[in-house]
Amino acid sequence: MVAESAAGARAGNGYFVQSVARALSVMRSFTAERRTQTLAEVARETGLDRATARRLLLTLADLGYVTSDGGHFELTPRVLELGYSYLSGMSLPEVAQPHLQALARELNETAALAVLDGDEIVYLALMASSRLATVKINIGTRFDACTTSMGRVLLAGLPEAELEERLGRLQLQRRTDRTVRDVQSLRAEIDKVRAQGWALVDSELEEGLRGAAVPVRDRAGRVVAAANVSVHAGRTTPELVERDYVPVILRTARLIEADLISAVG
Predict the structure, then answer these.
(1) Are 103 and 229 in contact (CB under 8 A)?
(2) Which of 155, 199, 241, 252 could form a disulfide with 245 if both were Cys (CB 3.0 to 4.6 A apart)?
(3) Which residues pair with 127 in a beta bridge?
(4) Regions of the chain short of the pLDDT cut 50
(5) Of 137, 150, 106, 113, whose CA–CA distance to 259 is shortest?
(6) In contact, 113 and 227? CB cutoff 8 Å
């Protein structure tokens, strides 16, 4: 109600676009305590009538910022895009970079940070190692989420309804002989990630490429990114990665989280 009245107070300005203010008020109505809301709840929190709130929610859904199961609405990770300009100033990529550098030095391997965008991961920060030359990776590189360790961590962090919706429409592409072949197997891998708190993907994106990833969470405990280390399979075993690498990546993620919370206040 406060957001709508404040918008009304500014509406007399010649430049003020009320529809933008209303859309933002709808997005801000979602909080850690109200991660999912009905149409009636959004209307009540924003002070908008139900018809206006519905149009805005459906528009945001069409744009990919909101998802719905028919009765309840929830923000999607795409809302992070709205903060990327700010984040590039001093938040996720910049906060993560020194920790990735330390991680890469300690393990002498490539370390990275990525977020989920649709069915793909996008690299936000990277500390590359000359020891990994099989795959060309840069800031902004995209890969299918289902074939990467960071992607599976990010998928595992989704609300159950959104994960089911994504898996229901997913078209798996086989990149190597080891790439997961069906949605049921992928779901089993995601459930495993949820249970153990990290992911290991072996030669599914690229033959000979092994990656381990862990979640990076915000103050509310939501998974906002994934950190990983990529290694050549010929130099390691899955058991070695779990024993020697995963604990170091987990420690790095906790450091990134602590600095991220400090950076955003």
Answers:
(1) yes
(2) 241
(3) 111
(4) 2-6, 9, 87-88, 90
(5) 113
(6) yes
Q: Which residues of 157-179 are buried (b: 16+ CB within 10 A; e: fewer)?
A: bbbeebbeebbeebebeebeeeb
Rounded Cα distance between 232 and 214, Å, is 18
Alpha carbon distance 236, 130 (integer Å)? 16
Q: Which two tokens stand for residue 64?
A: 């990919």
DSSP assigned state of 233: G
Give backbone dihedrals phi and psi of 96, rounded to 5 degrees, phi first.
Answer: -75, -30
What token pair was written down for 129?
């190692």
Query: What are the CA-CA distances from residue 102 to residues 1, 111, 117, 182 (Å)?
Result: 47, 9, 27, 37
Q: In Å, how far are 58, 76, 152, 159, 246 from 162, measured between CA atoms?
A: 16, 8, 14, 5, 27
pLDDT value of residue 11: 53
**Which are the contacts of 123, defined by CB distance < 8 A and separation ≥ 6?**
112, 113, 114, 137, 138, 139, 140, 141, 142
Cβ pair 33, 53 in contact under 8 A: no
Q: Where are the beta strands (DSSP E) in 98-193?
A: 110-117, 120-127, 142-144
